C-alpha cells in the first residue's frame, strides 16, 4: 500500500520575511519580540523560521545586517566617502535626521534602540551592538585625528571627545525620533551640533588630498 506523502512546506519570500522580522526587532527591541511575534510578522510557521533562519539570535543578527545594508547611516562607507572628518560628521547627522524619520518604518536607529534594557541572558546581543556603535565612534575619531595631523583641523582639537560627542548626538537624535521629533527638527539639531565642531583651515587638504571646505 502506498504511503501518504507529506504536504510540501509553505513557500515564502525569504527577503520579505527578513524585512518583517527586522521591523519587529527595530520597533520593539530584541527581548520584547517572541518567536510567536516573529512568525506572525513574517507570516510563516515556527518550523519554517527555524529552517530558514536558525534561532532567534541568528535571525536578529541577520536582521541587523539587513538594517545596516538598507537603512543604516552610521557606517564606515559614509564616513570614508567624505573628504574631511567635519564633512563626514555633518553628513552622518543629516542622514540620521532623514533615516530616523522614514515614513512607514519604525522611528530611530535599530543599532541604538534594539537592545536596551535587556537581561543578562541577552548580554551577547547587547555587547555586539555596543561594539558596532563603538567602532563607528572610533572611526570618526581616526578621521578627526588624521585631519588634525594634516592641519585641516586645529592642533588643539580633542579627537576622542569630539567623536564621542558626535556619537552622543546621533544617539540622542534616535531617541528624539522615537519620541516623535520630525525630520526638520532633527536637521535643526544636526546644524546646532555642527557648530560645536572646530572650523576647517581654509586651503588645507585632508588626508585624501582633497581641499577642505568650510561647510558641514
List strands and helices in order, with pairings.
Blueprint: H1 14-28, H2 35-42, H3 46-53, H4 56-70, H5 76-81, H6 85-99, H7 110-113, H8 123-150, H9 159-178, H10 183-194
Briefly summarize what is shown.
This protein has 216 residues and is mainly α.
How would you portray this structure in words?
This protein is mainly α and 216 residues long. It is 61% helix and 0% strand. The protein contains 10 helices and no strands. The chain has helices at 14-28, 35-42, 46-53, 56-70, 76-81, 85-99, 110-113, 123-150, 159-178, 183-194. 32% of the residues are buried.
The parts where pLDDT drops under 50 for at least 5 residues are 1-8, 208-216
Examine the secondary-structure arrangement and name the CATH architecture of the largest domain.
Orthogonal Bundle
Please, what is the average pLDDT?
Answer: 87
Q: What is Rg?
A: 21 Å
Shape: elongated
From the structure above, extract its key features:
216 residues, mainly alpha, Arc Repressor Mutant, subunit A, Tetracycline Repressor, domain 2, 2 domains, disordered C terminus
Amino acid at each position: 500500500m502506498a504511503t501518504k506523502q507529506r504536504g510540501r512546506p509553505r513557500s515564502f519570500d525569504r527577503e520579505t520575511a527578513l524585512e518583517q522580522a527586522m521591523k519587529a526587532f527595530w520597533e520593539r527591541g530584541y527581548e520584547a519580540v517572541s518567536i510567536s511575534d516573529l512568525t506572525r510578522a513574517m507570516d510563516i510557521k515556527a518550523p519554517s523560521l527555524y529552517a530558514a533562519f536558525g534561532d532567534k539570535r541568528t535571525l536578529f543578527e541577520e536582521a541587523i545586517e539587513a538594517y545596516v545594508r538598507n537603512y543604516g547611516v552610521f557606517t564606515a562607507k559614509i564616513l570614508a566617502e567624505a573628504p574631511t572628518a567635519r564633512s563626514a560628521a555633518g553628513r552622518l547627522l543629516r542622514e540620521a535626521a532623514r533615516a530616523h524619520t522614514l515614513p512607514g518604518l519604525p522611528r530611530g536607529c535599530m543599532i541604538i534602540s534594539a537592545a536596551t534594557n535587556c537581561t543578562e541572558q541577552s548580554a551577547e546581543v547587547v555587547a555586539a551592538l555596543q561594539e558596532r556603535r563603538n567602532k563607528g565612534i572610533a572611526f570618526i575619531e581616526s578621521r578627526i585625528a588624521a585631519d588634525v595631523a594634516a592641519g585641516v583641523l586645529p592642533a588643539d582639537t580633542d579627537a576622542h571627545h569630539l567623536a564621542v560627542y558626535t556619537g552622543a548626538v546621533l544617539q540622542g537624535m534616535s531617541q528624539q525620533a522615537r519620541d516623535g521629533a520630525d525630520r526638520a527638527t532633527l536637521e535643526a539639531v544636526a546644524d546646532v551640533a555642527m557648530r560645536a565642531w572646530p572650523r576647517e583651515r581654509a586651503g588645507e587638504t585632508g588626508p585624501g588630498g582633497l581641499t577642505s571646505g568650510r561647510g558641514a
